[in-house]
Amino acid sequence: MDYLLFRLYGPMASWGETAVGETRHTAGYPGKSAIIGLMAAALGIKRDENEKQLKMQEGYAVAVEVHSKGTLLRDYHTAQVPDSVGNFTYRTRRDELVLGKARLGTVLSIREYRADALALVAVKVFPDAPYDLQTIKNHLVEPRLHLYLGRKSCPLAAPMNPQIIKDKKNYFDAFKNYIHKTMMPANDDLLPARDIYWLQEAGDRHYYWEGVPSDFSDSLDLSRMQTRTRHDQPLSRKRWQFSPRQERYLYYAGGA
Question: What percent of the chain has pLDDT over 70?
């Protein structure tokens, strides 16, 4: 089995959770909707292209290796927006402030971020996937749309360094191989070791993946593995609708 692996690191990230009321929470790691959305943006697929987004969602499975969840940051956010007027649409921010001046109100929210967080992502392709791993890798290097870590205010702070790891049995072996290749580059396609010093071969890890236990490892003790539910299975990105998804979780002490 081949896997596509890449790195997500930035000064701030926001991995959206279920939003209720004024608070917009963040998870400590990217969920499937965020990962698939990032790959779709790299390929040039827009949010309102529902059929293409659905094929992306169904065509790939993902796993995440969390090296650092970072520090939780909360921002008290205010914004002035006008209320709706019949079928009229404000097409720009200037329209909201100028044409809607008489109807302006203040929206309050608390938005959470993860500061200085680092995670590796592994992607597995299904037979009916719309793009092969090499195509996705190429577009992660040269994306067609802007890439960010959950919010537009959260840019990437390091190259994603996508690599295709070939002929591995499971996610765990793929993660180990990626770290080894990245820390000990063998050719010019890989980043110098000095540029990825934060990836360590030893240390505690948090792993999240979808699928059965053997998809992750056939050699580790998975007796402490948990099965969790996360609401990050997109039904419609245009309407921001999501359904529950089952994923596995394992805390692993000692590193790869």
Answer: 90
Answer whether 62's CB lies under 8 Å from 121's CB: yes
Q: Residue 153: CB partners within 8 Å, gap ≥ 6?
A: 12
- Residue with token string 């990437």: 156
Give the domains, in start order, of the chain with CATH numbers: 3-72+114-252 (3.30.70.2660)
Rounded (5°) CA angle 132-30-202 = 95
Cα distances (Å, whole numbers) of residue 66 to 7, 51, 122, 157, 221 = 10, 31, 11, 17, 19
- Residue 229's SS3 state is strand
* pLDDT (tens digit per residue) in 201-217: 557 899 999 999 999 99
Query: What is the secondary structure of 78-138 as a DSSP string?
Result: EEEEEPPBTTB---SHHHHHHTTGGGEEEEEEEEEEEEEEEEEEEEEE-TT-SS-HHHHHH
pLDDT tens-digit series, residues 125-166:
999 999 999 999 999 999 999 999 999 999 999 999 999 999
User: According to the model, what pLDDT value does residue 249 have?
Assistant: 97
Q: Which residues contact 172 (CB under 8 A, 6 or more apart)?
A: 207, 216, 217, 219, 220, 256
For the chain, give percent helix, strand, coil, nearest 5: 25, 40, 40
The answer for residues whose C-beta is within 8 angstroms of residue 68's C-beta and 6 or more apart is: 116, 117, 118, 198
Residue 198, SS3 per DSSP:
coil
Phi, psi (rounded to 5 degrees) for 166: -100, 150
- pTM equals 0.85
Q: Is the pLDDT of residue 43 over 90?
A: yes
pLDDT at 236: 77
